[in-house]
């Protein structure tokens, strides 16, 4: 079986940028796109904050461009999903096959237990690829409530990213679901544009930090529906109204926008027990939590610097994009981290 110098898992802005850099550096990278080829931006329309496009660019078009650019420099793009990895010894083992009668959709729809079961069954089979180094850029998924109407109207008034989409809601009436710091931040960000922001929160108090709560509650544009859960989202071409259960009573509100701010789930099922994770995110030497600081401290070189900042807890494994990013989760930060991971992998392979 051929041993690849570098394999990249994931085809969002992080994965494709890593592939562009690695291919131009003649590392002959192989990149696995996964079942969601192009990543999260395939689910949005206009991207207005990715530098270089003064008029904005459609998410799928941006991803098609990144793919074409990686292809142009000779990256081997495989439209398949990595179904298991073994990072215990080098070269690392990667699988793309699955046990009989199993669909890769299990990775999207299955429970954590079901996914782990499939991964361990897959590992009984022969691996499909060996790789000396690995860049993981499997992204993160925003958690949503999967209420009726959500699937149809996602991206048509429903958003999971206020930083990205708030400017599209000028003078509109919007709702924010959540009660933690993200919900507070998103609501405050929306006050610059929307005419009215209503937070839907299932409890009678927020779990966010006190200072954020104070800012939100003192803002005249923000209203709160306490003890309320979202039941349904209604609209034809775009969101028109929402149904909620408010203190046990079913109520209907007109709505022009709805933002989910109830957290993200990094896509790290494959790496459980093999890489250090923090809140589910892969820890690298640049992770902003204590785990990241500890790893960084352990990796200081004799010049008191970190040689490979995008390195994970396993040597030769680098990670980039939303899968490591507890804080920013933007296309441009993911792309930047993809570049760093490719440069780190190149340097590491050279020093090997
Ligand atoms: C609706 C929406 C709108 C957004 N709008 C903007 C915006 O306007 N501006 C902005 O900056 N950001 C925006 N974002 C955020 C932005 O999309 C993300 O920050 C960015 O896509 C993260 O890139 P990534 O490469 O880390 O991962 P992702 O884009 O999440 O890509 C992950 C990739 O990993 C692959 N993958 C996962 N598991 C496997 C596996 N086992 N094997 C192989 N491949 C695998 C997936 O198929 C996918 O290709 C938006 C997000 C959403 C959801």
User: What is the helix fraction of residues, given as a range?
Assistant: 25-40%
Q: Helix count?
A: 10
Q: What amount of the residues lies in strands?
A: 15-25%
Q: Determine Rg (CA atoms, Å).
A: 21 Å
- CATH C-level label of the largest domain: Alpha Beta
Tell me the number of strands: 21
Biggest pleated-sheet summary = 7 strands, mixed
- What low-confidence regions span 5 or more consecutive residues with pLDDT below 50? none
The overall number of domains is 2
- What would you call the shape? globular
What is the CATH fold-level name of the largest domain?
FAD/NAD(P)-binding domain
Give descriptors for this structure.
25% strand; 28% helix; globular; binds flavin-adenine dinucleotide; 352 residues; FAD/NAD(P)-binding domain
